[in-house]
Amino acid sequence: MKRVLLPTDFSESAWNAIHYGLKLLKDEECHFCLLNTFDVLYASNLVSANQVSPAFDTAMSVSQASLKETLHKLELLENPNHSFEIISRNNFFLDAVKDVVEEKNIELIIMGTKGSRNNKGVGFGSNAVLVIEKVTKCPVLVIPKKSKFYGFKEVILPSSYEEAYTDDSLKPIKDIITRYQSNIRILHIREKDELSEEQKANKFALEDQLEGLHYTFHALSNIDPAMGIKCFTESMQGDLVALISKEHSFWSRFKESLTIKSVNYHPKAPLLVIHQAS
Known about the structure:
The protein is α/β, with parallel strands linked by helices and 278 residues long.
């Protein structure tokens, strides 16, 4: 049974991500953990904030009530493949997510973007960026606010060819492609005119790993990675962008660019981030 974390702040964006995730996984046996966090400060000399803080009691009551309301709506869908639990945590969002991933052996996180508006448009919210960057033990699927699930006809896989992919890293992507008979479009954003020998070897290895699947190679030049991915995905009517990330890889700059206000990365397709160990 797949164990999936669904963080929620009860916003429209969070609900859309939850609904997207349940449709995506409707035929799989899954246990969903709905997580809501709040941050109640309390005096350091209190023995137990959970027992003596009225602010904590109020915040916990609101969180639990809202989670139960969300759970009720999900149970009305009556999918026998799905079970749920609700979790309220008095903690910073990222710390709570990391804790639950460890405690519940989470295999996938599905969350909304809740885009933060800037002077160029709407991009990823700070919580989504934090999870993409800092939670490396399981894949993260980030769902734009207006995305609806209709399957995956076109999957975009950006690659620098600087690192060889492990079979474990590619498996979630290959599973999607096989299930939905997707086309996979491998996008390389060139920094130099020619690939190095190592990049050529890694590209050939990727071809071997994708044997039997429908794939094509593409390249762009002289463009910011995030903007290049956005433009290419829109031109190909991409249904999903899958990003395999290593901490010090070229594509880590994609994540960095999500936080730069001058980069108008307004995603229309969901983003699947898979962390590959160094």
